[in-house]
Amino acid sequence: MIYLDNAATSYPKPPEVIKAVDLSMKLYGANPGRSGHKMSVDSAFQVYKCRGMLDSFFNGYGAEYVAFFPNCTYALNTAIKGIVKKGDHIIISSLEHNSVLRPVHKLKQEGVAEYSVFRVSEEKAVTLENFRQAFKDNTTLCVVTAVSNAFGNILPLKELSEIARKNGALFFVDGAQGAGVVELDMKNQGIDCLCVPGHKGLLGPMGTGALLHKGLPFSSIIEGGTGTASFDFSQPEMYPERLESGTLNVPGICGLKKGIEIVSKRGVSNIFQRESRLCRRLYKGLQEIPEVKLYQGDYNSGIFAPLVSFNVGDLHSEQVSAYLNENGIGVRGGFHCAPLAHISNETQKQGAVRVSPSIFNTEKDINFLLNLVRKIAIYRNI
């Protein structure tokens, strides 16, 4: 199969990542931070090294402020629900994934907080003005995606964070589609909390994610064993233990550590440019097919991440993706767990066919996909 669904999960995993996971099962099989014997200490050291690598990679606020989670969704829920207080107002963008929308909507349903949605435009000035207009006197938190998982828009994080700071609000970022693909620099971009998955652009295994923050006073969402202060009935105040209860996914963390090493060596900018070239080729090819609907004014890599979404005539996106699957190409059809983005782009009936290449894809893969789309456009009876 030609795999072009890397916005969901990157594939294939580099051999070095697979080897790191396998080796961890043999060498680091003990519970980190729970015992004093050598294997437990060695396992804890591997976890600590990965914390430090994540902190360095995203220019964070210290390894102790890096907490591991099963995925980005858990991290976002912990961040949002752990900081919002009754009576607060939250701002989110019109491109947010359900990992942001559903937690804030739940807080609204429970009568804890209200939220507003600002519309993202391809014109930065319009986006920033829409953001400014969304603030209220009780706005305490802004949560935005770094990159739209449905349409690839790159949000102007630094400018948005400056507006949030001037209005006395915290600025949280969903890095699900951005981590490892676009530059994310917490200190330079004014990010107070960044949530990332390990299994997408960072090339790590599924079941890995992290929350990075600047020492914020989060309430714990889950309480349990942390390996410290066992006779204290309350969850520890210190980080990262405050946010981490139970046994960590050490094999996954070891694989993630290796993935970060690979991405760091290749360079995020180089990865972005390589993947963007493939998307530009795809976009131009799709433009030549009259029946194809595109949702980007043009493929400008300064505005869009390496991701292209389209439809063919009135066919539902899942019909198109099913046909492509039958012919050896893996893409994502449907709504991508991002209803706000589809409402914003008026694709709530068809969804969209999403193509997201990786560093392992080639122009040959894109050409094969384009040939299949041409056939769909001609026959339309799939």
Folded structure, characterized:
The protein is an alpha/beta fold. It folds into two domains: 60-248, Aspartate Aminotransferase, domain 2 (3-Layer(aba) Sandwich); 267-379, Alpha-Beta Complex (Aspartate Aminotransferase, domain 1). Helices cover 40% and strands 14% of the residues. The chain is built from twelve helices and twelve strands. The strands form three sheets. A seven-stranded mixed sheet has the order 2-8-7-6-5-3-4, sandwiched between helices. It has a three-stranded antiparallel sheet with strand order 9-10-12. α4 links the parallel β3 (88-93) and β4. The longest helix has 20 residues, at 38-57. The protein is globular, with a radius of gyration of 21 Å.
